[in-house]
Automatic annotation (TrEMBL):
The chain crosses the membrane at residues 62-84, 96-115, 127-144. Keywords: Membrane, Transmembrane, Transmembrane helix. This is Uncharacterized protein. It comes from the Eukaryota. Pfam families: SBF_like. InterPro entries: Na+/solute_symporter_sf, Put_Na-Bile_cotransptr.
């Protein structure tokens, strides 16, 4: 972020917008560029991302997942914050909602894919305990900073 802000003359909003635009355009362009520039031949067939005919369904699936998991919660949160401004401020300050939500998201990010693939049942109990305590330690360190 420091490099981006120094190139934008220390303008944080400008560098943030650049990062957001790059992330939004990079996701759909990466498979197309990979497919377009990869040499043809049997040696590279295993490395191709997908058949170009499946790109439409792949992009619509990704857009739906992003919309439901990122855009919709952001829009609902901003509407609630705008309509119930005083109550939202009270909940955030008195109930330490940001810390609770942050710790919940930390655990969900760690265990959501492991639960979905049933890989969590193959992990040893000491490894899970270590992972939980390591996540808690990281959360406390970054909260203190």
């Amino acid at each position: 972020m420091a490099i981006l802000s120094s190139h934008s003359h220390k303008c944080i909003p400008s560098s943030s917008n650049t990062v957001v635009i790059g992330n939004l355009t990079g996701a759909p362009l990466s498979p197309l560029l990979t497919f377009g520039f990869m040499p043809r031949g049997k040696a590279f067939d295993d490395w191709r991302p997908a058949n170009p005919a499946t790109f439409g369904s792949m992009y619509s699936s990704v857009a739906m997942q992003l919309g439901l998991s990122v855009v919709l919660p952001l829009v609902v949160g901003q509407v609630v914050r705008g309509v119930l401004e005083k109550r939202t401020a009270w909940v955030l300050q008195k109930l330490y909602f940001s810390k609770v939500a942050g710790s919940f998201m930390l655990f969900m990010a760690t265990f959501s894919s492991a639960s979905k693939t049933s890989a969590i049942y193959e992990i040893s109990k000491p490894s899970i305990i270590f992972d939980v305590f390591m996540n808690l330690a990281l959360y406390m360190v970054f909260t203190a900073i």
